[in-house]
Design a protein that fits this description.
There is one protein chain. This protein has one domain: Transferase(Phosphotransferase), domain 1, CATH 1.10.510. The chain has eleven helices and four strands. Helix 2 runs antiparallel to helix 4 and helix 4 packs antiparallel against helix 7. The radius of gyration is 17 Å and the shape is globular. The chain starts with 8 loop residues before the first helix and ends with a helix.
């Protein structure tokens, strides 16, 4: 097992300057991992800062970890409600849906990116949720965090049911650009079918506007598609 000595993302983003400076790099690298995972038919189902390890600070290099709740959905469907409540998509508990998709990971990424940009999670009472305590798993014991409900997260479910607009105040206050706000808003679309696939999100203008590392994005995508094709993964087919 690889030892990652720089801790996890929850520790890294406590330094606001580092968090803001690395926001695009963090987001791109997570999406690179999701492109591959989702291309293999795997949904992580518990993306959060504690499950993103910092392999290197300079240059910033991160790795997705803790695949204990992950599931390959190629020959089955995602039915079980799993995940850390504060990062879990609302359709897990607010709808009559019996099957879920990789859009669960996209929602979790949206919460994570919002947190990187603002140091806050949208919709949630910060004191009510402890990301280090329990996970949604059907029945939740008294020793774990309560699952999301309309009672303990009225903002989230008001948004989910279309009663309130997406809250942008924290993003605006933090100085997030219009492109960043649009990006986060897209990841956190209430309808899971409206959220972008990982590859589509990776191509978003916010992640490469005025960013030297991404001036050759098309070349990177072609290279990634070529590498995955060797593994028998048709990236374009998976993401269309």
């Amino acid at each position: 097992m690889e030892y990652v000595e720089c801790g996890d993302l929850s520790q890294y983003i406590t330094d606001r300057k580092k968090a803001l400076a690395g926001a695009k790099t963090i987001t791109r690298q997570i999406l690179e991992g999701l492109v591959i995972l989702h291309g293999e038919g795997i949904c992580h189902r518990d993306l959060k800062p504690q499950n993103i390890l910092v392999a290197s600070r300079i240059p910033l290099h991160i790795k997705i970890a803790d695949f204990g709740t992950s599931k390959r959905a190629e020959n089955t469907v995602l039915r079980t409600m799993l995940g850390t409540p504060a990062y879990s998509a609302p359709e897990l508990t607010a709808s009559s849906m019996s099957q879920f998709t990789n859009a669960l990971d996209i929602w979790s990424l949206g919460i994570l990116v919002h947190e990187v940009l603002t140091s806050k999670r949208p919709f949630f009472d910060q004191a009510a949720y402890d990301e280090d305590s329990g996970k949604i798993s059907g029945v939740v014991s008294s020793s774990t965090t309560k699952p999301l409900t309309q009672a303990n997260s009225p903002l989230l479910f008001g948004y989910y049911y279309g009663n309130i607009e997406f809250p942008v105040d924290d993003l605006v206050t933090s100085g997030a650009s219009p492109e960043a706000i649009c990006f986060v808003r897209g990841l956190l679309a209430a309808n899971p079918e409206d959220r972008p696939a990982a590859l589509e999100a990776f191509k978003d203008v916010w992640l490469h506007i005025d960013h030297p590392e991404c001036t050759r994005m098309d070349d990177w995508l072609k290279s990634l598609e070529s590498e995955l094709s060797v593994l028998g993964i048709d990236l374009k087919l998976k993401e269309d």
